[in-house]
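2024-03-11 09:14:02 INFO worker-7 job=invfold-0412 stage=load source=structure_tokens
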């Protein structure tokens, strides 16, 4: 039989705000940071007690600047953290000190509960209780040990099928009904953890995204016990997944009848398998099956700082953007504009290989096409919305001006790299708004403006890189000619490639940066 909650996994939109709240305010320990096991370009943070004991773990999938989800039936809606009953006053005072709104305390099933929301809007409850034993307490300045969070108290599940959800938790995860209110049945495990099953009939359905709870994981002693539950689930017709090796535990996933995703995870091997206790959470790990891409992935994953450490302060600008600072910074700043279907991190591996000491600023295009990010609309593969190009070019010019003011960007040494659709927008903006971009690298760019504006690009240096068998390269010579005619210093190179980028592009970029003295790395 299982032993209560192992961990609860949520989705956050802003990694820095998340760390500041769960470490800086709640006082949890960051015990692990890793690339996602399904998608290693997605950062996964695990918080818990001093050793990351099962039952203390709150974990987050980081969808940096991702779309918000919607809380509704078929999804957990709240997390509850156990504290000493006499510590409610301490946390109420601490919330006031951190300017975090609260409600309560109020009684829920005979326990005092203080409610607040994390930066993504997820409801976090402090529950004064002695029903669960404390794990391996983590000491932190500002939070006396008696007032520290003890472990997870429980979670709330929203369901349109409360009877079936309750039966599922009882049959497969060892929970039993121990209390009931008007719309909530409290299910309790032998460990004392609880799951509140709330009847959400008539409520709207859930939608995945930031600010939601992805799943609840329950504890199992080991793989044989997980396998036995898996066999029972499959025999009953449930759509359970095969065993997943998550390095720190092994697990299966299944959706309960009401639609919420549940996981059954082993207690071991645990968080200490690859870090000593005093080093937990200090190293970014990449899952073993993505080892060949580890260098690239570490550049693409969003960076953050611990509370009281120096951090990069982001400002509100017209485009979503992400900054990567290498350990040994000292090169130029490279501003990156992705191609169709990419995002702000897509060009970071290429840029980091070409200029290892450069600070990278990846920017996300605001247009979309069938869910893929772009920089402006198109009506057909080679027919573009001219008004939208002009509008987005002006917006990107405003972004550059804002970055100069907010981040101290030096345009004389900053290099802009645009690939495909990103290169097209960059070239169009240079023609429509000259004198902003002084150094540009255009990868597989082509002519997109129907009418060539009269512009002075005499202060611009451009590396123009085409693929010798690029199927979209027919109009590249026309763009190159326009840039030259406008007075730009254009270096044109062809690499053995199609429309994709590769090692040849990295090498020509590296050489051009050195030759133009913008790449001192």
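2024-03-11 09:14:09 INFO worker-7 stage=emit residues=521
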């Amino acid at each position: 039989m299982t032993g209560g909650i192992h961990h609860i996994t949520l989705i956050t939109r802003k990694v820095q705000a998340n760390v500041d709240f769960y470490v800086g305010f709640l006082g949890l320990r960051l015990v692990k940071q890793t690339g996602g096991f399904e998608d290693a370009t997605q950062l996964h943070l695990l918080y818990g007690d001093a050793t990351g004991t099962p039952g203390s773990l709150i974990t987050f999938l980081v969808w940096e600047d991702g779309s918000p989800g919607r809380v509704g039936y078929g999804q957990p809606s709240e997390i509850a953290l156990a504290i000493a009953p006499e510590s409610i006053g301490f946390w109420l005072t601490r919330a006031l000190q951190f300017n975090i709104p609260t409600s309560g305390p109020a009684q829920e099933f005979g326990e005092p509960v203080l409610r607040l929301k994390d930066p993504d809007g997820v409801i976090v409850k402090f529950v004064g209780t002695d029903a669960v034993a404390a794990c391996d307490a983590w000491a932190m300045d500002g939070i006396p040990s008696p007032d520290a969070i003890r472990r997870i108290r429980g979670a709330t599940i929203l369901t349109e099928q409360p009877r079936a959800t309750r039966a599922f938790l009882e049959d497969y995860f060892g929970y039993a009904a121990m209390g009931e209110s008007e719309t909530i049945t409290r299910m309790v495990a032998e460990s004392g953890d609880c799951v509140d099953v709330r009847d959400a009939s008539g409520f709207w359905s859930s939608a995945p995204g930031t600010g939601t709870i992805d799943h609840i994981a329950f504890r199992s002693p080991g793989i044989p016990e997980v396998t036995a539950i898996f066999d029972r689930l499959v025999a009953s017709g449930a759509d359970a997944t095969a065993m997943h090796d998550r390095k720190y535990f092994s697990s299966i996933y299944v959706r309960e009848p009401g639609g919420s995703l549940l996981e059954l995870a082993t207690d071991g091997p645990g968080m200490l398998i690859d870090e000593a206790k005093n080093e937990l959470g200090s190293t970014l790990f990449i899952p073993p099956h993505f080892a060949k891409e580890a260098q690239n992935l570490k550049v693409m994953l969003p960076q953050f700082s611990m509370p009281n450490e120096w951090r990069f302060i982001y400002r509100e600008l017209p485009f979503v953007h992400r900054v990567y600072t290498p350990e040994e910074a000292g090169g130029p700043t490279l501003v990156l504009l992705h191609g169709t279907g990419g995002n702000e991190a897509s060009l970071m591996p290429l840029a980091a290989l070409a200029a290892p000491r450069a600070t990278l600023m990846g920017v996300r295009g605001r247009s979309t096409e069938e869910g893929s990010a772009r920089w402006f609309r198109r009506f057909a593969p080679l027919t573009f919305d001219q008004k939208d190009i002009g509008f987005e070019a002006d917006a990107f010019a405003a972004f550059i001006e804002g970055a100069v003011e907010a981040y101290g960007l030096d345009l004389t040494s900053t290099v802009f790299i645009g690939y495909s659709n990103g290169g097209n927008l960059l070239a169009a903006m240079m023609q429509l708004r000259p004198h902003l971009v002084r150094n540009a690298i255009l990868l597989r760019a082509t002519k997109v403006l129907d009418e060539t504006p009269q512009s002075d690009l005499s202060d611009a240096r451009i590396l123009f890189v085409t693929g010798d068998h690029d199927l979209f390269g027919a109009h590249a010579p026309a763009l190159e000619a326009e840039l030259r005619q406008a007075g730009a210093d254009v270096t044109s190179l062809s690499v053995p490639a199609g429309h994709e980028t590769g090692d040849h592009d990295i090498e020509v970029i590296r050489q051009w940066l050195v030759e133009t003295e913008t790449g001192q790395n």
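2024-03-11 09:14:09 INFO worker-7 stage=report msg="The mean pLDDT is 95."
2024-03-11 09:14:10 INFO worker-7 job finished
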